[in-house]
UniProtKB/TrEMBL annotation, chains A, B:
It comes from Thalassospira profundimaris. It is found in: Cytoplasm. It catalyses: (2R,3S)-3-isopropylmalate + NAD(+) = 4-methyl-2-oxopentanoate + CO2 + NADH. This is 3-isopropylmalate dehydrogenase. Belongs to the isocitrate and isopropylmalate dehydrogenases family. LeuB type 1 subfamily. GO terms for biological process: L-leucine biosynthetic process. Pfam families: Iso_dh. NAD(+) binds at residues 76-89, 286-298. The gene is leuB. Residues 4-357 form the Isopropylmalate dehydrogenase-like domain. The record marks Y141, K191 as: Important for catalysis.
Length: 364, 364
């Protein structure tokens, strides 16, 4: 089989972590007869530098034509002072919106070998395995009206948080499906005691719940959720929430693991008649401009994002598991990039880490 | 001197923790010649039960006439299924808005004796002392338009996040003043890469910063702030942010301490010509309906809220310090209510904890 993949290395460490994925793709072609037809494109700062635009129509067309997109990271101090409308982030928001990637899957997983990296006590996070589902194309990120305006000599900044029933329903369905494949517990996070938009959210989640009687569903206010993530994160299985709350809570959950450099993510669109979905995969970590180009970055989150691609876009769950197992074995073997370095372990470069994953794959 | 205080015990454990404050007030009258003219009122569920209204005009008038208000806690399962408009929370939001309490001070403090209660490792939180300043009468909590509406057969829920320049400026000034009295570091939290409302927020904070050249000011996106609180909370001194972000981050920060039962808060209005401010003080913890009426609740957060009242409303910083020291001494002496119980310590009731604070006050 051949899969069309668009690679968008982006900025900072994006290109170097992406090169390690290319290796694994080559390995899969050779050993598993799964071929990738790879196109490369620009996004974020790299695209601003080349085209004065964080996401060109051409890149977007390539993304729409691909079976899946793999993104490195966008942004960096070089572009921080650009006006709001042409910042690197705009490229990311636009590609999500245009591709209709409404479901953002953000696992927060603690690898046994790295439990010590967390700032939380070992018993609180050992074995942690949460899936946060963040709505990604609606809510206050995209609501109209928005802007900064002067009225009677006073300036106001405003944004609109808006969700329609169908928007809530489709993300809720993904969440319940996900819960069914996991431990059948779903916590929906809202602020229904203050925000009417999330009163509707809660109501729709309740209604969808009727179709999933096996799932144990609960509702939690966002302030309490941010406490509970710190108090006892293992109480959660799947969490589903709005775009803005998901942005905040998924980063909090990611940091509970202590190893951001290990966390992948997936952003999925609606399934078409054939069951195929538009999809974009990216590591949770940022572009880390301070270490870019030095062969220091941790490529594992990007490799695990590629594994998610195999699982969710190509229905190649076994191959995804192969990569995930190889990553775990590399960690068990004591290899660490700088960001996850621990006493007594062997510090390795981006390249060596990538090579070691291939070596482990060869042993499986 | 005599100070007019309105006490609003509210729901759940509110009344019993409030009784311990009454004791300290009596002690202050006797030993320090500071007298409190106390009125009691209803709010939240208690007011709904009596008047079918979470905040009556009468209670509001009492609040406006008082020098300061002390609140216990509001809410509980009994009122959870009431319609949005007459829930207990509505009383709290209304009193904040009507009294103009735009500045919510939420310290996150780790007491040396309780450092083990945190789910975070000791070195990460020992000595933690953050002050979070949350804007409390604006933003998405109060913005118009809001509601749930049907358009072309589809229901939408919507809320408006709006801040005017003067609203941002006044909270920013409180934040910089606070930073000047502390370690002169201020972190303003926004989502200026996505929300125009917080582009204006950042701009105004930058402008106010010019009046406080000694304060080291930084800006952080809210998702990163929620990570940094978990990664290394001691990097922060004062944080200032919007109503919604403050709700989430201050609860996260509170939970880092591991002992919610210890955390006070203050909500302040603008200073009038005489320098007096409207003010409401309340513990961060909720109404804990599961243990209400059993003499099990921790009264220390409410006592510390009362200490904040002495400091911020009555300029009685020395007396505030007396209470804070008494609380610390009680903890050092090994007394604990159930919520902060540790091996080898003595478990005591709400009443005994209150008495012990008085005993310590007598020794100071
Ligand atoms: C870069 C930014 C616009 C983006 C977001 O807020 O969605 C990022 O924080 C993320 O979570 O992917
Ligand atoms: C009860 C609720 C309305 C309130 C808020 O969101 O402001 C509470 O969470 C708080 O932080 O005081």
């Amino acid at each position: 089989i051949t899969k069309k993949v668009l690679m968008l290395p982006g900025d900072g460490i994006g290109p170097e972590v992406m090169r390690q994925v290319q290796r694994v793709m080559d390995w899969m072609a050779k050993k598993r007869d799964i071929n990738f037809d790879v196109t490369e494109g620009l996004i974020g700062g790299a695209s601003i530098d080349a085209h004065n635009n964080p996401l060109t129509d051409e890149t977007l067309a390539d993304a729409m034509a691909a079976d899946a997109v793999l993104l490195g990271a966008v942004g960096g101090p070089k572009w921080d002072n650009l006006p709001f409308d042409i910042k690197p982030e705009r490229g990311l928001l636009k590609i999500r919106k245009e591709m209709g990637l409404f479901a953002n899957l953000r696992p927060a997983l603690v690898f046994d070998a790295l439990v010590g990296a967390s700032t939380l006590k070992e018993d609180v996070v050992k074995g942690l395995d949460i899936m946060i589902l963040r709505e990604l194309t609606g809510g206050i990120y995209f609501g109209q009206p928005r802007g900064i305006e002067e009225r009677d000599g006073v300036r106001f900044g405003f944004n609109t948080l808006v969700y329609s029933e169908p928007e809530i329903e489709r993300i809720a369905r993904v969440a319940f499906d996900m819960a069914m494949k996991r431990n059948k517990r779903l916590c929906s996070v809202d602020k229904a005691n203050v925000l009417e938009s999330t009163v509707l959210w809660r109501e729709v989640v309740e209604r969808v719940a009727k179709d999933f009687p096996e799932v144990d569903v609960s509702h939690m206010y966002v302030d309490n959720a941010s406490m509970q993530l710190v108090r006892n994160p293992k109480q959660f299985d799947v969490m589903v929430t709005t775009n803005m709350f998901g942005d905040i809570l998924s980063d909090c959950a990611a940091m509970l693991t202590g190893s951001l450099g290990m966390l992948p993510s997936a952003s999925l669109g609606a399934a078409d008649e054939t069951g195929a979905r538009k999809a974009l995969y990216e590591p949770v970590h940022g572009s880390a401009p301070d270490i870019a180009g030095q062969d220091l970055a941790n490529p594992l989150a990007t490799l695990l994002s590629f594994a998610m691609m195999l699982r969710y876009s190509f229905d190649l769950g076994d191959d995804a598991t192969l990569i995930e197992t190889a990553v775990q074995n590399v960690l068990k073997g004591g290899l660490r990039t700088a960001d996850i370095m621990q006493p007594g372990m062997a510090k390795v470069s981006t390249t060596v880490m990538g090579e070691s994953v291939i070596n482990e794959l060869n042993k499986l």
